[in-house]
Amino acid sequence: SKFLGFRQGLVGVGPSRHLLPPHCMGFTKKYKDFKFCESDVVIATFPRSGTTWTQEIVWTMRNGLDFNEASKVSLNVRSPFFEFDSIHAVHKDIRADLVAKFLSRHPNGDPRTGGIFLEQAEMAPAPRTIKTHLPFSLLPPDILETCKVVYVARNPRDVCVSYYHHQSSLGSAEFIGDFSDFVDFWCRDLYLQAPFWGHLKEAWAKRQHRNLLFLFYEDMKENHMRELKRLDAFLGTGLSEEQLRQVAEHTSISQMKSRSSVNPPPSVYTERAQKEGRKDFIRKGAIGDWVNYFTPELETKFQAWLKTGEEIAKEIPFKYK
Ligand code: A3P
Fold first, then answer.
1. DSSP 3-state of 262
2. What is the value of pTM for the model shown?
3. What does the buried/exposed string (b/e) look like for 16-51 if buried means 16 or more CB atoms within 10 Å of the residue's CB?
């Protein structure tokens, strides 16, 4: 069979039946009740939209451009994943003291079935930069009254291609179909955090809020400095042009692809991906890679799916290049 999402399958929940990994199921109330604080910055995204990139940017900007710490300590530790146990998933390359503290509390923790992930966010020292793929409707209703949120959106064709690589190379998903199979699932909104349009719609509706910054992956690619300046103003980090230039260099695709602290260790990939030397978590980092994957038939199919989001898409200025 072809696996999609987590090996255990997908689970639907919430107002627009968001498909979550099963391990999130018992925790939806806890997510909503989580106590964010004023100094938190949450990076909220639909998967494969530039989360890791934005996390690294925001963490670096808020931590005095500590490039040394950023190279030494895994991003999963510096910027915890709200609803996932990334410490267990990647613990081999992260700070021993943190791992020891965590494992002493959860000797039998399991990244897929444990419910211990919220604690990673709780344990992180302020100022916390927290990653989530949860849509707004599954986060605390007053989150924007409490802290700042950076939402990053990316055009769905590139997201789909990127997600295919992600799902077929990671051991937690092990999707074994080809791209056309993946598009088939996609067009039926069967992927983690589906529906794509619903996820975006919820964030877009809040874009005028002073505590929400709505960014596009394509804008960040097109003019990194301009978007860094927007982030600087939003976060109140007061960095100089030269400092922002250093952040841009530190977070370029080439630097991020080769820095182990922002990449998962080889063990998270399937055996096959490891053999093939695929490191698809941070992959190509390009706009428009989809042209290399969509055949005319797949394009026709995708067009029909795009129509399901027409109402939202016409409001959101995506750049399909
Ligand atoms: P591709 O698979 O198209 O290359 P996320 O972090 O939300 O999972 O998003 C992953 C996507 O962001 C991947 O897209 C990845 O390569 C891209 N990405 C990661 N770091 C990047 C960077 N510094 N610049 C541009 N794109 C980056």
1. helix
2. 0.92
3. bebbbbebbeebbeebeebebeeebbbbbbbbbbbb
DSSP secondary-structure letter at 125?
P
Ligand 1 binding pocket includes 288 (Cβ within 6 Å): no
Task: List 42's β-bridge partners, or say none.
Answer: 130, 149
Instruction: Find the 164 Cα to ligand 1 centroid distance in Å.
Output: 13
Kindly give the interhelix angle for 241-250 and 51-62, rounded to the nearest 10 degrees: 140
Nearest to 155 by CA among 48, 297, 254, 55: 48
- Distance (Å) from CA 217 to ligand 1 centroid: 9
Q: Which tens digit of pLDDT belongs to each residue from 36-71?
A: 999 999 999 999 999 999 999 999 999 999 999 999
Q: Is 133 a catalytic site residue?
A: yes
Residue-range domain boundaries for the chain: 11-313
Provide the CATH topology of domain 11-313.
Rossmann fold (3.40.50)
Closest protein CA for atom 17 of ligand 1: 285
